[in-house]
Amino acid sequence: MNTNTNINIIKPPKEDLFKSGKFRSFLIQSIVMILVISFITWVVNNTATNMTANGIAHGFDFLWETSWFDIGYLPFIDHTGSSTYFNAFIVGILNTILVALLGIFFATILGFLIGIGRLSDNWLVSTFCGSYIEVIRNVPLLLQIFFWYHAVLRILPRAKNSLNIGDSFFLNLKGLFIPKPIPETGFNSVLLIGILSIIAIIITSIWAKRRQNLTGKQFPMFITSLLILIIPVFIISYLNDFPMFWEQPVLKGFNFKGGFRLIPELVALLLALSMYTAAFIAENVRSGILAISKGQREAAAAVGLTNSQILRLIVIPQAMRVIIPPLTSQYLNLTKNSSLAVAIAYPDLVHVFAGTALMQTGQAVEILAMTMSVYLTLSLLISLLMNWYNSAMALKDR
Amino acid sequence: MVEQVRKPPVIRLGILGWIKVNLFSTWYNSLFTILALYILYLAVPPFFQWAILDAIWVGNDRFVCEWYDEDKVKYRAGACWLYIKVWLNFFTYGFYPDEFQWRVNLTFIILVISITLFFIPNFKKKHYVGIFLFVGYPIIAFFLLIGNEQIGLDTVGTHKWGGGFLTLLLGLIGIIFALPLGIVLALGRRSKLPVVKALSIMFIEFWRGIPLITVLFFAAVMFPLFVPQGVEIDNLLRCIVGLTIFGGAYMAEVVRGGLQALPKGQYEAAQSIGLGYWRMMSLVIMPQALRIVIPGIVNTFIGLFKDTTLVSIISLMDLLLTVFTSMSNPDWMGFPFEGYIFAATCFFIFCFGLSRYSLSVEKKLMVSHHK
């Protein structure tokens, strides 16, 4: 075939095998596949050789072996020297979840406050919130964790001279001591009544909504649900002599007994994580609120809604649509960032499992794979949820 | 209906008017203002007293800042900035030998000059500077910093590198390698070839789904297992590879945003004048897509730069770890506030400056879009 001459003559396109799109894409993909597979094989081979040479065991049998190390801080389940590595894995996950949930709780509150404050028409408040956001966002999180742990919490007094907040909260070098709720007999009935009231509230709200759709009459839902919830629970609690007991931390000797102890590592980590994430959440909140055009408020006011109705029915639902996706990714970031706990030895998943257990067993491949898959599962689950939420909440174009 | 007569709006001028509008417009705003002023009153004067008025700037040892009387009672002056002064060389260069520190400085000066050239408006040969920054400069920096006996520079092992210099280096290398990796991954993710697309998605989502610290553990512990026996990978190099892959995955998503933001007409126009895939991408699509996402790239870079502090967890002597190390020195124990405030200020200046730059670019882009 004379492919390199006759440029001037226009011919019908030839079926040149090499130049056809299908063949080329097949070729490229095969090459990529072969390269990737051979790279992986090479890596796996090397790893296997290296592990045999260094006498590293493989497989997941080590999970059921005795771990020979203690974990100091266990709010949920025990881990002593005779527990297995698998137990350490679970303890690590639980401690990670603990710090992530508490962090998300505080970061959300602080973030919304600061985000709204940033939009305040009070110059002082908005400047203050603005500088908070800028300072916190532009300093590395690890530095902030170190700052709280190694600088601020180190100048706290000893247990004897604890900072006393209302005789229930005590802050000292050993951590933060808070009262612990302990249920007594009869608590179950209160719990049952509470659940029943919530069900009643849900039924009432469905009924109220349906009635409003049919007749246009409004029902004072907020006050009604408050009453439905509070009155029965209060009566039952009263009849049972308030079956909830708050165990106060009490100074005994050199340390506090009773109550719930948050170790300094946890306090520092929580402070840093929630303050850091709050700065990002504040920016999301601000842009979410700004995304609602002024016309929406004006239109709502024009049809006669009151100020609180405008906020509740018009602004917040639309702003939340903008805020929630980035908010979720901030939650995810917070959870991933909680792995920095390893730097100050808070016993989270990375510290306990990818740190101590890895050092003891040397089974890096299995341990890192397990640790990574925990975070990966979480990320993928949340992004699936997010996609579902986005498609459910997306504006339906007609 | 009774018609309420509204008063004409009062135009307020001057400082008093400003104060009335911005601080005391409603009763709750007045409350907030008073509260905020009170908090400022509680926080600012003591801090000012500590950080400036009572601070110690000169001296020889810690006993200028901290001393004991006969009864062993400890006294503290304000902030001990002397501590920073004494340790500044260590905070900047780590263990890099004093007599070779000019090499670090030179590397840095070359970088500053080329970046300045790059950002001078109306400078015509920008692409040469760009190519130099991404290709020539890393080679020069490599030889200057590590040294090579044959060109007469003594070797300095990477274990001696440290301080702010190492932090900057990690950040810069991160951006130099993460951006190209991100572009390739983004193209892969947008590719029409299912295998390439699937592989890119898996790669990106995997590295974005795990925390950086596990990536660094992975790099530190697993990379040595991945290579044939007898091959040693430098600890710093492992970290850099980890950071690059991690940053590249995030960069890919930013670049993808730019690719998606380009109107389809650009692709079709490029194809209609007969450009192939690579020429279409490199001449038409990428220059525009990258321009749109400059703010995103800068923000990712800021994130990556802050994240370089994590290398201190696997004991690389970055700025944070040098500060931390100095605190456990028996001669200078007990000044954590000064140390962390110093480190935080360094990071803040760098990151805040960059974020302002990205904001100004964003504004410029918005203007040019609306032309």
Descriptive account of the structure:
The complex is a heterodimer of chains A (398) and B (371). Chain A is an alpha+beta fold and 398 residues long. Chain A has a domain at 58-144 and 266-355 and 362-392: MetI-like (MetI-like fold). Helix content of chain A is 64%, strand content 7%. In chain A, the strands form three sheets. A four-stranded antiparallel sheet of chain A has the order 1-2-3-8. Chain A has a two-stranded antiparallel sheet with strand order 4-5. In chain A, strand 1 (163-165) and strand 2 (169-172) form a beta hairpin. Chain A is globular, with a radius of gyration of 30 Å. The mean pLDDT of chain A is 83. With 371 residues, chain B is mainly alpha-helical. Chain B folds into two domains: 1-50, no CATH class; 84-96 and 156-369, MetI-like fold (Orthogonal Bundle). A two-stranded antiparallel ribbon of chain B has the order 1-2. In chain B, strand 1 (66-68) and strand 2 (74-76) form a beta hairpin. In chain B, helix 3 (81-93) crosses helix 13 (319-327) and helix 9 (235-261) runs antiparallel to helix 12. The longest helix of chain B has 34 residues, at 336-369. Chain B is globular, with a radius of gyration of 27 Å. Chain B starts with 13 loop residues before the first helix and ends with a helix. The mean pLDDT of chain B is 86.
